[in-house]
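Annex B, item 7. Sequence and structure tokens for protein A, then protein B.
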Amino acid sequence: VNLQKVIQMIQDEKSCMEAAQQLQAVTNAIVKAKQIYVQDHIEHCIQSAQGEDSNANSRKIKELKEITKYL
């Protein structure tokens, strides 16, 4: 179920229980997508930091610290 369909359910005054369940499914999908996105970014930062100078590594570490708050 996508968010657009849930919005339509609400506008069509479908069952509140069904709409709430579908909203939860959308929320869970967004949370999972965010986790995957952030984890992929972290892996990319770690891989790209190998062999870089200390200034570049310091920037990568700062970026990693910042992005982990979204996990």
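Protein B:
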Amino acid sequence: PYGALVAVAAREGSPVSVGLERGDVIYSVNGRDAETLDILKRVIEALRPGDPVVLHVERQGVLHFLTFEIQ
């Protein structure tokens, strides 16, 4: 599968911290595949405050779902 590699993650406790870590691979956002950075950016830009978000990510070979709400 294709995904977006997280090169830099926000510091824990910062307003944009959602639990991503450097080296994570984002495979989807709310069920939409993140096959390219352009697709990932479009999906994220369409989100509004209050929208729920589910990220499907791989971290060190293990798949995870990260959930949060857009602030």
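Comment on protein B: The chain has one helix and five strands.
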